[in-house]
Design goal:
Blueprint (H helix, E strand, L loop, with lengths): L3 E6 L3 H14 L3 E7 L2 H11 L3 E5 L1 E2 L2 E2 H7 L6 E6 L3 H9 L4 E3 L4 H14 L5 H12 L8 E5 L4 E5 L3 E7 L2 E6 L3 E5 L3 H8 L4 E5 L2 E4 L3 E5 L5 E4 L3 E4 L2 H10 L4
Parallel strand pairs: 1-2, 1-3, 3-6, 6-7
Antiparallel strand pairs: 4-5, 8-9, 10-11, 10-14, 11-12, 13-14, 15-16, 16-17
Helix pairs in contact: 2-3, 4-7
């Protein structure tokens, strides 16, 4: 297997030292060619050394990791973010195929991230991932908010606003997208519930989650159901009925 040349960017010397020790002790195929502690220094060494991989801290003393990426001439590389962001952001990274390490970096987490890199060095959708990542961390919500969904053949960048509903099918989740698209992904509905609830989604049944913006009416018969845009009829479970009516201010 080929050597992977990498650069570490972090304004904390202690964090760089710890990561270097982990890499040198456990990953002999990773060759650390340079380090940087800020935006300007990072852009210079990355464009000069042209690495395969960058370990990039999000918050730097003189700016952000986003600014580094925006200023680079050399973009033909993978990025693993190092971050101290909260659990919501971590869940979003995971579901959207962004490689990340939560500080302080643990050896097991590093192993998983490196395996991803080794399997994806030839992939070229990283730029789209970074575009999505910046949107999320800069707080762009509403109609332009995006999520990455992957089936066996394709990676989709979907506006959250366009998702009508999600349905559990065993360990898979089916996404119904406006106007008439369906995408099936190999992750549980629970994982997407944690990510999408802050953006206007409502779990109405063990197997169903809906976008509040797409609800057209509540139907009381047969235990209760919701009619959504696109003529989607979704059952409301007895256990969740009171919560749903309260949430929709229909009680």
């Amino acid at each position: 297997m080929n050597v992977i040349n990498c650069i570490m960017v972090d304004d904390e010397k202690q964090a760089r030292n710890a990561l270097r020790d982990l890499l040198q002790s456990n990953f002999p195929l990773l060759n650390i060619v340079a380090e940087a502690d800020g935006v300007s220094a990072a852009v210079t060494v990355i464009d000069t050394c042209k690495p395969d991989l960058i370990f990039l801290d999000i918050n730097l003393g003189d700016g952000t990791g986003f600014q580094v990426l925006e200023k680079l001439t050399w973009k033909d590389c993978m990025v693993i973010f190092t971050t101290a962001y909260d659990q919501y952001a971590v869940s979003a990274f995971r579901l959207n195929a962004i490689d990340y390490l939560l500080k302080p970096v643990m050896a097991d987490d590093l192993q998983v991230a490196i395996e991803k890199v080794q399997g994806k060095l030839s992939d070229r959708y990283t730029a789209r991932q970074l575009e999505w990542f910046k949107e999320m961390m800069q707080g762009n919500k509403g109609h332009e908010k995006k999520i990455v969904l992957k089936d066996n053949d394709t990676i989709y960048f979907v506006k959250v606003h366009d998702i009508i509903r999600c349905q559990a099918e065993g360990t898979y989740t089916e996404f119904y997208i406006y106007p008439n698209q369906k995408i099936t992904v190999s992750r549980s509905l629970k994982e997407y519930e944690d990510l999408l609830l802050p953006f206007g989604f409502l779990r109405v049944h063990h197997s169903h989650m809906v976008n509040r913006e797409k609800i057209q009416k509540f139907i009381k018969s047969d235990g209760g159901s919701l009619l959504l845009e696109g003529n989607h009829l979704v059952p409301v479970s007895q256990r969740r009925r009171t919560m749903v009516l309260s949430d929709l201010k229909l009680d």
